[in-house]
Amino acid sequence: MTVMALLVLLLPLQRLTSHQSTPSLPPPARNSAANKKLHLELTSTTVPFKFQVSYAGKPLWSGESNSATVATDTELRFPPEGIDLVLDASWAQDKETAVRLALTPEGSDTIVKTVWGTMSASEVLTFTQEK
Amino acid sequence: MTIRKGLFIFLPLAFLATLPAGGADALQVASFSTILTEIARQVGGNHVSVAGLVRPGQDPHEYQPTPDDLKKAADAQLILLSGKHLEHYLEKVQQATGGKGESLSVGDALPNLKMKADPDEPEAKAAADRNGMIDDPHWWNSVVNVERATLIVRDELIKLDPANRADYESNAKAYLAKLSQLDAWAKRKVAELPRDMRKLVTSHDAFQYLAKDYGFKVYAIEGVSTETEPSDRHIAELIDEIKKEAVKAIFLENTLNPKVTVEITQETGARIGGTLYADGLGEGDGSTYDGMVRHNITTIVDSLK
């Protein structure tokens, strides 16, 4: 019984001492920004169009649309520094076209960015929330 | 076509090909910046002969002109200077040239960022404003600034040699198109890194212009110059900041001793992310401006991901 009690005491004691011996770094600052629900809406003045929206080097939303407006919902970390979304769009018609990406973080105002292109458009769009 | 006719065409062309770019009639240009040397060669083409006096890989903060360099500057019709107080030897150049050639401080015409002057450096102290701030001379780390510099060099070449205006305009247009593609590539590559992870710790404070263009926050181990050692207090504050911000990697520079940077990685747990070209062109990847920017951006982004 005494041996059992000592073992129970030793385990947390060992954890405490071994924890102290490893250098501790604070948790990464980037984790401090929580995930946020985002509504994305893409509008093109020419249809049909193909599109891809990427975040941090990875495709987030892509497709082909016959209607002028498409929308989706997603979740991303939204730090105070904002987020960069890469928008690629292409059209079969050879005419100047505007494509608008509207981003609405849950509980916040919509942020709108517009790019222009002929046959295709590709741009990095920065979205930051008003403080 | 007979062999004889072919030789009449081929031999003069073969002779021309052996001549260096910019013949005897070429506009003589001396450049004290590796970036401006590239711009002048790209825009000037065969109409200019450019002597690059600060060589690739050479630290422009520590560079001192040799008598041969000063002679080349004195013989030049156009002297290209980086400006923003980088050329601490400017007086020597002015004495050597006697104001004969046109002198153009390209950086002085570009938008300015301020940085803290190094109190241990007399030239920096003299150039500082009442708040101890000086102009940040590292304008070339912004592609947009290099585009602006290209236009400045183009206009100066046209002014000195108006007969070749069309060539200067067309060469500048081609070079600007490459710079525009480079900037678009850089923006896309940087977008791979979430904005709150864009923390750039480098050996000396040379990347403010890059940081402004691409949304980085800069922490420098040394100040504007590469000549002075950082204080213990500054290093301690920096270590705290790196730990607080959980910075994954810190970067070395091709012209600097890595000792202090390596010590900081040991204290913080951050790793060495690679070596950056901070002060202009270098050897290898960084021997062209396009290569230099691609190397720097790729090294930074891939190490901080």
What do these coordinates show?
The complex is a heterodimer of chains A (131) and B (305). Chain A has 131 residues and is α+β, with helices and mostly antiparallel strands. Chain A has one helix spanning 2-21, and strands spanning 35-44, 49-55, 58-65, 69-77, 83-91, 96-105, 111-118, 120-127. In chain A, the strands form 2 sheets. Chain A has a 4-stranded antiparallel beta sheet with strand order 4-1-6-7, with no helix packed on it. In chain A, a hairpin with a 5-residue loop joins strand 6 and strand 7. The termini of chain A are far apart. The model of chain A is unreliable at 9-31 (pLDDT under 50). With 305 residues, chain B is of the alpha/beta class. Chain B is built from 11 helices and 10 strands. Chain B has helices at residues 3-18, 34-44, 67-75, 90-97, 122-127, 143-160, 165-190, 208-214, 232-244, 259-268, 289-304, and strands at 27-31, 48-52, 78-81, 102-105, 114-116, 133-135, 199-202, 217-220, 249-253, 271-276. In chain B, the strands form 3 sheets. In chain B, strands 2-1-3-4 form a 4-stranded parallel beta sheet, with helices on both faces. In chain B, strands 8-7-9-10 form a 4-stranded parallel beta sheet, sandwiched between helices. In chain B, strands 5-6 form a two-stranded antiparallel ribbon. In chain B, strand 1 (27-31), helix 2 (34-44) and strand 2 (48-52) form a beta-alpha-beta unit. Chain B is globular and about 60 Å long. The termini of chain B are far apart. The interface between A and B is medium-sized, with 23 and 19 residues.
Could you describe the largest sheet of chain B, including whether it forms a barrel?
4 strands, parallel
Number of helices of chain A: 1
Instruction: Kindly estimate the percentage of residues of chain B that lie in beta strands according to DSSP.
Output: 5-15%
Mean pLDDT of chain B: 88
Oligomer: heterodimer
Helix content of chain B: 40-55%
